[in-house]
Design a protein that fits this description.
The chain is an alpha/beta fold. The chain folds into 2 domains: 124 residues, 2-Layer Sandwich (Nucleotidyltransferase, domain 5), CATH 3.30.420; 139 residues, 2-Layer Sandwich (Nucleotidyltransferase, domain 5). It has 10 helices and 15 strands. Strands 3-2-1-4-8 form a 5-stranded mixed beta sheet, with helices on both faces. Strands 11-10-9-14-15 form a 5-stranded mixed beta sheet, covered by helices on one side. The chain has a 3-stranded antiparallel beta sheet with strand order 5-6-7. A hairpin with a 3-residue loop joins β9 and β10.
């Protein structure tokens, strides 16, 4: 998918860690990561980002792509209100990176990059239309329609986690937040207990499956796209909540859509990073 003379850097600015990788036609050549200094001032965070990119930079790099957990002004290259970095309220990230590295820079939301990564390199290479869902510390998605990323007018399409649900939003019930809010226990701890047969822990994941099913029903009614790729840390526990999830999905009102529902699990641990790199491929294809 990457032309032989192309070398890209992808950056995944996650909730707790930032990752960077150098990608070429031969695959992921180098990968580094570090913790996000979330409470630092804006310039300090930027310095850490520069240092990370420098570790995978070579003169052969032709473009940089960055996925950020925030709203992005795609036309101006500005990121706003980055969820996990309070000091990044309005950062002209594209211009800052282009001035430093003198190559084209492309930005997008991190969940959109996940979907793009799965489309170019992962489970959705044969699906031109699908929705990629990241289920981890948060809950968000990226929407691919006819092989093109649909971002909406303000790069906010796919923010399913912020849709109202019950006494809060879907993210409170369809991510690791459920375990902390409802059970006062980290999801990883409950996961290991569930694997050992703990009934209460297994019930917690069945609860997650129910709420996730409700979220997918809402997405189906809004988009009529019955194909999903699930990624993120919580998705690895799929066998523990699959039965409850599918019980809910089978209640979808329209038979043809219901029978077409398909779920695939991401096998790509760096889908967000690879998708960020692929932003350059998308830009080249649109030129």
């Amino acid at each position: 998918m990457i032309p032989p003379d192309t070398c890209l850097i992808g950056v995944d600015l996650g909730g707790t860690r930032m990752r960077a990788g150098r990608v070429s036609a031969s695959g992921l050549e180098a990968r580094v990561e570090t913790r996000v200094p979330a409470q630092a001032d804006a310039d300090t965070v930027l310095t850490h980002l520069y240092a990370l990119i420098d570790r995978v930079w070579t003169p052969a790099v032709t473009a940089i792509g960055v996925g950020v957990p925030s709203v992005v002004d795609l036309a101006r290259g500005i990121v706003y209100d980055v969820q996990n970095i309070p000091s990044w309220q309005e950062v002209p990230l594209r211009d800052l990176l282009q001035n430093r590295y003198a190559v084209p820079v492309y930005l997008n939301n991190d969940a959109n990059c996940f979907a793009l990564g799965e489309h170019y390199f992962g489970q959705a290479r044969d699906w031109p239309t699908f929705i990629g869902l990241v289920i981890g510390t948060g809950f968000a998605g990226g929407v691919m329609i006819d092989g093109r990323l649909f971002t909406g007018m303000h790069c906010g399409a796919g923010e399913f986690g912020t849709m109202p649900y019950r006494d809060g939003i879907f993210e409170h019930y369809c991510s690791g937040q459920l375990f902390l809010r409802q059970h006062q226990t980290p999801g990883e701890v409950l996961y290991h207990r569930a694997l050992q047969g703990d009934a209460a822990a297994r019930a917690a994941f069945e609860e997650l499956g129910y709420h996730l099913g409700q979220a997918l029903l809402s997405i189906l009614y809004a988009y009529d796209i019955p194909r999903f790729v699930l990624g993120g840390s919580v998705s690895q526990a799929y066998p523990l909540f699959a039965e409850t999830l599918w019980t809910v999905l089978h209640t979808f009102a329209y038979r043809q859509t219901r029978e077409a529902i398909a779920l695939r699990l991401s096998h790509q641990t760096d889908a967000g990073l690879l998708g960020a790199a692929a932003l350059a491929l998308v830009a080249a294809a649109n030129d």
